[in-house]
Design brief:
It is a single chain. The chain is of the alpha/beta class. The protein folds into two domains: about 260 residues, Spore Coat Polysaccharide Biosynthesis Protein SpsA, Chain A, CATH 3.90.550.10; about 120 residues, no CATH class. The protein is built from twelve helices and ten strands. α5 packs parallel to α8. It starts with 9 loop residues before the first strand and ends in a 25-residue tail after the last helix.
Length: about 450
């Protein structure tokens, strides 16, 4: 797993910088995140929001961006805030401008990194910040700042874990060229098709995250460049964290220095790497789990199965694909062997694949622990399905020994539907039962509530 950048790679010029928090990437006993809470009221002047502006050689736009952002926050944001300029190894006048802005504006701090990389800058600054809500935006201010408060409000209220601006939402208003529009939509289609991503816009430079989530999530994010956003969102979504999307007004910056081809290639490599890690269960996503609701009683309900709807949908999709796979194997095998043997071979191969897919995707069991046991139990379920389908074939043969191939397929399809229902019940209750007990309330919970619901 990736490690955090060394503190030696960054020098922070602000004297009030908080010491960087270190979070072990692999705790001996992973625990879930505490329930989301509305952030408590902070003392006057304490920043609730820390907005990071990553820059590299931005001497032309930096001061205009920071002053405009500061004026907007001072006028509209009802909490304390900070603006952090994260300089990524600039070689022009950017470092000097950052330090001057820090001296002139109390809410601005300068942060210097000696290596390039937007992801590296965000991970370093966010890991060092003590603000409970962390955000970032591009220095060109392509996104309308009126979306900033709607972006962070769900994080402050405790409703969501991350928030992103979306240029692809229905009510967004976007001005950009056809080339960038095509690339953006194609990239998001790739994410949906390959990683089953449900968020609409991965690369909009306008995002926010709660600090307690960032402390757990950032050590899992490997990329240090432009793919950082996508990797962070995919891992958060797969872990079940809530991602809030805000439609934004966005105007393309024609002077952008992003190299589209090289960035696209790096992104595709990142998609492959993340897809492979998710497929083999190499990421400890259980560390990012949230309890259901914010009332401790919600975590102690007995006899109420969790995730039934999601599991049922996943099982049905995998079942449909498995049935098509089974029928294709049966039709292929039927050309060289009898119906009973062809049925047994097709059902055995599809059953192994079905058990593996349901284990990983439907019931969220990752890694090799108990994998052999699960396959053995899956074979028992397979035997029941074999008895149903073989019995159906035997009954068909007894009724009509010269039945057409299409009739055999129809009978097998009906028998498989019945076997599928039974397979889901056995998988859920016997092969992959939910052994997770109530999530304990630990000292990591940000604060407690008194009987009247007031924070203290």
């Amino acid at each position: 797993m990736p490690t955090e950048p060394s503190a030696a790679t960054a020098s922070h010029t602000a004297p009030h910088a908080a010491p960087r928090a270190t979070v072990p990437a692999h705790p001996a006993h992973p625990v879930a995140l505490p329930a989301r809470r509305h952030l408590p009221v902070q003392p006057a002047g304490t920043p609730v929001l820390d907005v990071t502006v990553p820059v590299h050689n931005e001497e032309q736009d930096l001061e205009r961006c920071v002053r405009r952002l500061h004026e907007h926050l001072a006028r509209t944001f009802p909490y304390g805030f900070r603006i952090t300029v994260a300089d990524n190894a600039s070689t022009d006048a950017t470092p000097g401008i950052s330090k001057r802005l820090e001296r002139e504006i109390p809410e601005v701090r300068a942060f210097r990194l000696e290596e390039k990389g937007r992801g590296r800058a965000l991970r370093t600054v966010w890991s060092a910040s003590e603000a409970p809500v962390l955000a970032y935006m591009d220095v060109d201010l392509s996104t309308d700042l009126n979306a900033l408060l709607p972006l962070v409000a769900p994080l402050i209220s405790g409703h969501s874990d991350l928030a992103i601006g979306s240029r692809l939402a229905r009510s967004s208003r976007v001005v950009r060229g056809a080339k960038r529009e095509f690339i953006s939509r194609t990239y998001n289609l790739i994410l949906r098709g390959s990683l089953a991503a449900r968020f609409s816009d991965a690369q909009c430079g306008f995002k926010a995250i709660r600090r307690d989530v960032a402390q757990r999530l950032l050590p899992m994010v490997e990329d240090t460049g432009w793919f950082f956003d996508t990797e962070m969102l995919v891992l958060a979504e797969r872990a079940g964290l809530r991602i809030h999307e805000v439609p934004v007004d966005w105007v393309d910056d024609p002077a952008s220095t992003v190299h589209i081809v090289s960035t696209a290639m790096d992104d595709l490599k990142g998609v492959w790497r993340i897809g492979r890690a998710l497929a083999v269960g190499a990421l400890p996503l259980d560390r990012l789990a949230r309890p259901f609701g914010d009332d401790p009683r919600d975590r102690q309900l007995s006899g109420v199965p969790g995730g039934l709807a999601r599991q049922l949908v996943g099982f049905c999709v995998i079942g449909a694909l498995s049935t098509l796979f089974y029928l294709a194997l049966y039709s292929l095998s039927r050309t060289v062997m009898g119906p009973q043997l062809a049925n047994g071979v097709a059902l055995l191969v599809s059953a192994v694949a079905n058990t593996s897919a349901n284990r990983r995707l439907t019931f969220g069991v990752r890694g090799r622990d108990r994998a052999v046991r699960h396959q053995a139990q899956g074979l028992v379920v397979f035997a029941i399905g074999l008895a149903l389908t073989s019995g159906s074939l035997a009954a068909l043969d007894a009724a009509n020994a010269d039945a057409a191939h299409s009739t055999e397929v129809a009978v097998l399809l009906a028998a498989n539907l019945a076997a599928t229902v039974l397979r889901f019940l056995l998988f859920r209750a016997w092969v992959f039962p939910d052994r997770a007990g109530p999530v304990p309330v630990t000292d990591a919970t940000p604060h407690h509530a008194d009987p009247k619901g007031d924070a203290r």
